[in-house]
Amino acid sequence: MLDRMRQLIRLELVIPADWDRIDTIREGVGLCLAAVFGHGEIKEALSMVSAELLENAVKYAKPGPSGIGFSLRREGERLIVAVTNVIDETINLHELRERIDWLRQFADPAEAYIAALAKIYEQPAPSSNGGSGLGLVRIAYEGGCQVECDTSVPGQLTVWAARDLSQPAGL
What we know:
By secondary structure, this protein is an alpha+beta fold. The chain has helices at about 1-5, 20-35, 40-60, 95-105, 110-120, 135-140; strands at about 10-15, 70-75, 80-85, 145-150, 155-165.
């Protein structure tokens, strides 16, 4: 019975696309993970990952009454944080996919992090989309997560980060 319970980490929420909710979710994820894993690196990493994904969702959500879906779940030896939102038609999903593909080119997320910082430093002006793309790199490096996105539902974006619990984090 205890082995089965170990795999039943599941938190699912729908929240308004409101900046003020992000810190509350970050803290809640931290408390949930501390209850299961203790106060340590997993708690800190997945709390940060949750906040980064929610910040992007709020930033790029289509204005209106639709909320943002948030989930934290355990599947075997992986913890998965997923955020789903309705997106504005002006969002360039190609840039998001390119950034995720760019991340995959690196065998070590630390190398991607250093390369991303160097690119930001070398840019004369901010990106046209208003973002540096550093959040996804932080999720990979500091969070120790694989990052993916799903755009199979028209007008909707899901970005998820999966942390393999059997592997140490990048930091």
